[in-house]
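note to self — DONT lose this again. spent like an hour looking for the file last time. sequence + predicted structure for the chain T wanted, 225 res
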Amino acid sequence: MALEEVANRCRFPREALYDLQRLTWYLPMDGGALKVGTLPITVKGWGKVRKVEVKQVGTTVERDRSLAYVEAQRYVGHVRASFACRVVEVNDQLAAEPHLIQSDPYGRGWLATVVPLNAGDVSALKGFEEVRDELRREITERGIVCFREVPDLTIPAIGVECSMALMVLKDQIDQVPVGTLIHLVAEGDESSEQEVMKWSSITGHEVVDLFREGRLVHVLVRRTR
């Protein structure tokens, strides 16, 4: 599946169809079926997903009714169907690794395969070109970042130079369990990457991801000891 980056590491398949109201994508399959999943931008509003329960194979789901139940850091609710459909396949891997619906939504994190009860209902979904600009606005205005792994918490140090923000991170990281992923956002420049890697070498904590977005630097760090 070919993915195109829209903004801030957030990538979307060009061949998929989209329902931005319900934060879902649908990929047409053979025989009129569609594979469905959630958009990675849910990470901003939901936080890290901790539980996913998808409707069983054979279940008929009416439009706007629950296709899957989700529990996350800041959200408990449902992924709702964009049209009346029948579930013909579910992703069993999500029971053990629910976070995949955000970190790998188009690969291992898809929810289900469904068949619409009325094939014409699919026409209400939008193509990639129709939603690209809206997705870009949503991502940039809300400061959404799509990392390879979903952070457990975010430290928004906007307006603080990277070197000072790393001192704040050092204090914060000592208060969370080993393995916790922290997303630090701070003011950055060309020297920021060197500062971050030096900090990692001194503290022993792992830098999982790092990139600059204009004047901001985004750092994803895992506490390792």
